[in-house]
Structure formats: structure tokens, C-alpha cells
Inverse folding.
């Protein structure tokens, strides 16, 4: 059936958007105010499961609740809680075997009366698998058969006919985020730990470390402080990096010679000068285990004009060189 579509001139689209967002915001406020001891109990159950090292948090739901369950499972997995989604229909045709007695099942259903969930509910009861419900109906079959019910408040749906799952699914998604992030905070997860779950994509790129992108020492134009500039220029040309790093015999960084230094000292006796006469001392450096994004920020924003490379050191000893080109190619920006 095709219904006549109103044109933007027949409806105040901005007012409609604000009204919808206000309705959903009211739902989230009600959810925040309704959080009680059941949330603590859910966190405790999931934490104990994780401590056993062999359990997973299984998410399931049908329809829009199923889409939200999929997102919550993905968020859990990416923040350190082993988790995956099982479709109720597939569960009824063999995928129940993916759920073990060590797992916890989190079922999502606004009404709590979806017949498609009955097989999963029965399976958890038969094998004594912990079942957590997320529903707005405390008297539903799902809530009554669960070990713990996370109740979302009954709230007005944002659509004009009050039937399309909007506010209710927003609250489910937010409650799932609250569970995932609380569990993350309990773990004390760092950015570096987080990057282990996100090796690809933009997030994984931004969490790459300096040591992942830096040029190794063997590829760098390293010179001694007593080397004359005619020799230094040859080394710089061979390595084609645009700078030379002056190091002691033990690889302690003494200084750096850049194109700018060459221009400042250019003169009749330039080629007879030594590297220590020309070098800039105390060059800015970064540690190899720092985030590459931090190195890019230093190169782009900590000088009057951006620099193209950053020395990598550990306790003053040369480890490598981070180049802005590598950062940009890796999608760090």
C-alpha cells in the first residue's frame, strides 16, 4: 500500500525532529531514574562469568529488539566482555548448541511476550543457564521466567502513531551501553587494551603506537658529532629523509640537522663545519609506546610551523623516527 507523502512545506520538519528527540530524551531520563539494584546484580553476574574465563554473554531478540541486541553484543565484545548474538529463529534450528552452561543469556523484548523467544527461554531453564531479561513488562513470560529482569520504563514512543519502536529501543540501547561501559570501567581498560579489540578501521588506526609506524634505526641517517658537513650531506642524500640525527657511540641522541639548519649555516666554510656545529640540540622526541596520534599532534601543533618527523627515543637512546607521511598514510589524522 502506498500512502500520499506530505511535502516539507506541509510539515515543520525541524519542529518534528526536536519533538521526537525530546520524547526520546524524556525516555532516557526516566530510564536513568529507574536504575535500581537489579543493574548491580546484572553487573555482578556478568563479572563473575568473565572471571571464570570460559563464559560468554549471549544476546538475543527479535525484530527491532534483535537489532539492538546485535549492537549491544558488538559493544560488549569490543570493550572486553566476550559476547555474540544468536538469532531466535536460528536458535530453534540448531544454534542453541552454541549456548553453554557457563554462559549468560540476555534476552531483549519490549513486551516480553514474543513467541520466537520461547525456545531460548526453555533451553536456559532446562540447562540452568542464567537468563537476564530486558523488558518493559514485569508481568511478561520473559520477566517471570528469567533469573533477573532489567526493566525499562514504559515511555511514549516517538512516532506520531505511538507504535513504531523508537523510544523503547533507544532506552534498550542506552541500558546496554551502561552495562558495557560499567564492565569496562571495572576492568580498568586502557586505550592500548582497547586497541587490541580494534586492530582495523579508523579507531584501530588512531590507536596505533609510534613503534608500529616508525622507521627503524637501521634506515636512519645517523652521524657522529665530529663528522664534517660534506660527509653529513652525503648521508642525508643516501637516506633521503630530509634530516640527519647526531648520536653518540651508545646511540644517545645529541641533536638533529634539518633543512632549516642547513640554510642557517650556509656559507663559504659550510662544508668544513662539523655536525655538532650545525645541529639543533634537545630535539623534540617521543617514546615508542606512545600513540602515533600523539606524535602527529606534536608534529602538527607544537611548533610555529609543522615539522615532518619526530625522533623516537627510550631513555635518551635512539629507537627510530616517526614521519608525518607514515602517520597520514596510516589514516591517523
Amino acid at each position: 500500500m502506498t500512502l500520499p507523502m506530505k511535502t516539507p512545506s506541509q510539515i515543520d520538519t525541524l519542529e518534528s525532529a526536536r519533538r521526537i528527540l525530546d520524547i526520546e530524551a524524556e525516555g532516557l531520563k526516566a530510564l536513568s531514574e529507574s536504575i535500581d539494584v537489579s543493574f548491580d546484580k546484572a553487573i555482578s553476574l556478568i563479572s563473575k562469568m568473565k572471571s571464570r574465563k570460559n563464559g560468554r554473554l549471549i544476546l538475543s531478540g527479535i525484530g527491532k529488539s534483535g537489532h539492538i541486541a546485535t549492537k549491544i553484543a558488538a559493544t560488549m565484545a569490543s570493550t572486553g566482555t566476550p559476547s555474540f548474538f544468536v538469532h531466535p529463529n536460528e536458535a530453534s534450528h540448531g544454534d542453541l548448541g552454541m549456548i553453554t552452561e557457563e554462559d549468560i543469556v540476555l534476552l531483549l523484548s519490549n513486551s516480553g511476550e514474543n513467541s520466537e523467544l520461547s525456545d531460548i527461554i526453555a533451553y536456559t531453564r532446562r540447562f540452568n543457564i542464567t537468563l537476564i531479561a530486558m523488558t518493559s513488562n514485569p508481568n511478561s513470560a520473559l520477566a517471570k521466567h528469567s533469573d533477573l529482569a532489567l526493566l525499562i520504563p514504559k515511555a511514549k514512543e516517538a512516532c506520531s502513531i505511538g507504535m513504531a519502536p523508537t523510544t523503547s529501543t533507544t532506552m534498550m540501547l542506552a541500558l546496554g551501553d551502561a552495562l558495557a561501559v560499567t564492565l569496562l570501567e571495572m576492568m580498568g581498560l586502557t586505550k592500548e587494551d582497547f586497541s587490541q579489540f580494534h586492530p582495523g578501521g579508523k579507531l584501530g588506526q588512531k590507536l596505533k603506537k609510534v613503534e608500529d609506524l616508525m622507521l627503524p634505526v637501521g634506515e636512519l641517517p645517523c652521524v657522529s658529532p665530529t663528522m664534517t658537513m660534506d660527509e653529513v650531506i652525503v648521508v642525508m642524500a643516501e637516506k633521503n629523509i630530509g634530516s640527519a640525527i647526531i648520536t653518540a657511540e651508545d646511540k644517545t641522541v645529541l641533536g638533529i640537522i634539518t633543512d632549516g639548519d642547513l640554510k642557517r649555516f650556509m656559507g663559504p666554510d659550510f662544508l668544513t663545519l662539523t655536525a655538532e656545529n650545525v645541529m639543533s640540540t634537545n630535539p623534540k622526541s617521543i617514546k615508542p609506546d606512545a600513540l602515533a596520534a600523539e606524535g602527529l599532534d606534536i608534529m602538527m601543533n607544537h611548533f610555529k610551523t609543522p615539522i615532518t618527523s619526530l625522533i623516537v627515543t627510550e631513555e635518551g637512546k635512539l629507537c627510530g623516527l616517526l614521519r608525518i607521511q607514515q602517520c597520514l598514510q596510516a589514516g591517523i589524522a
In short: The chain has a mean pLDDT of 89. The longest helix spans residues 13-34. The chain has two domains: 19-189, 210-329. The CA atoms of residues 5 and 11 lie 11 Å apart.
